[in-house]
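A quick aside before the break. I want you to see a complete sequence-to-structure record at least once, exactly as it would be stored in a machine-readable document. Don't worry about memorizing anything.
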Amino acid sequence: MRILVMGAGAVGGYFGGRLAQAGVVKEVAFLVRPGRKKQLDRDGLVIESPSTGDFRSPVTALLAEEVEPGWDVVLLTCKAYDLEAAVAAIRPAVDERTAVLPLLNGLSHIDTLEAAFGKGRVLGGLAKVQATLALEGVVRHLAPFTALEFGELDGRTTERVLALEAAFARTPIKVEAVSDIRGRMWEKLTFLGALAAATVLMRANLGEIAHAPQGGAWLERLLQRNAAIAAAHGYPVRSEAMEREFLPFFRTAVPGSAGATASMLRDLEAGGRIEADHILGFLLDAARRAGLPDELHEAAYLHAKAYEARREARRFPGS
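That is the input. The structure line, written in tokens, reads:
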């Protein structure tokens, strides 16, 4: 099996790196921009992880103009706002044998990828990982639990999905090929959308929000609203996910603590680009199509879009 990883940042670098480390597939290569290629050619791919061990190794880094057909899987790990450019970059790699596995947040990218490559080419997938790419090019893995879920969008169990599951099973990553990948993607959006909407709108971490009057109840109400949106679109959140993972995560936010934040807030506070439309805008539109109250999602989306307008106009202190 030959696997091309689009990107070698926090997500692509970690998942692709662990797959390369396992040495169970014929080839793993990374499709990157010139600056990242220079780092990888000079230093190799470097992962630092106190929980799963460090890894440093030379890797194959390709530029867009170097990509040719012949890949079994393209692992797509870009941000949503880079999707159009990513589609153009991976197009030369995709032929009749290729499966495209996106690990983007949200769901709207599926339609874009199916329009570009055909429904038979695109898998559904999601990643659960806390990692960041340092300025020096090191992938820093921040928390022990890391998981990967994927499957055919039509619910079938296919040889390509089972082969990919078997390859990742040799890594420290918890991997699962599932028949209801759309439902799992809605579940992640339920959780992530609440975390992003809350921390971006309030410009605070979960502990700081919980410290505010009725903050904890507000967080839970936002999470339950997302679950109602998912259910209205035919994908109810499994009780085991809601009761054992999502609600405990929000309920254990310690008032005033340095609690969790969404990566969207970290990007926003750094003055970077954010996935406002792909996550917050998608949930707002889904709430309206389902006829559900939308005031929480509208406020979060407007906040994010106002930030984008201010960023584009360079009206930040020190800009």
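Two observations worth writing down. The chain has a mean pLDDT of 93. Residues 271 and 318 are 11 Å apart (CA to CA). We'll return to this after the break.
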